[in-house]
Amino acid sequence: xxxxxxxxxxxxxxxxxxxxxxxxxxxxxxxxxxxxxxxxxxxxxxxxxxxxxxxxxxxxxxxxxxxxxxxxxxxxxxxxxxxxxxxxxxxxxxxxxxxxxxxxxxxxxxxxxxxxxxxxxxxxxxxxxxxxxxxxxxxxxxxxxxxxxxxxxxxxxx
Length: 158
Known about the structure:
By secondary structure, the protein is α+β, with helices and mostly antiparallel strands. The protein has five helices and nine strands. The chain has one domain (8-157): Small Protein B, Chain: A. It has helices at 7-10, 20-25, 40-47, 95-105, 137-157, and strands at residues 16-18, 26-36, 51-52, 57-61, 64-68, 71-72, 89-92, 110-119, 125-134. The protein has a seven-stranded antiparallel beta sheet with strand order 1-8-9-2-7-5-4. A two-stranded antiparallel ribbon has the order 3-6. It is found in: Cytoplasm.
């Protein structure tokens, strides 16, 4: 008789997709975790790890937060009713969190970017978003310099 897997074993495929470009381009001010509304074929593609967050950003539309340009590849075993690659997807946050973010977005130079997409123990997809301010060129150079120094120190250890 086959053993039944519990939920944690069933959804333990450690999907953790990061937006490395965002950490280089932006300085994060505040981070939040939001749920995301997906179709069935989208969650299956996410479980396969076929997601790109590189160009994604969030916008407010009718007091709701939406993520745009998040690329989820079509499901490989899908049929003709597969999802669109870069459709807008609604993010799920509390009203108080939405109001707070919307007020902060009115400040000049701030944006909301998704920085990480992951699956919870229950198999739910979550997006970590950040209220961010764009870095200037000299800030980006300093970031590169810090990474080089850390890499050199790491090499010297071994």
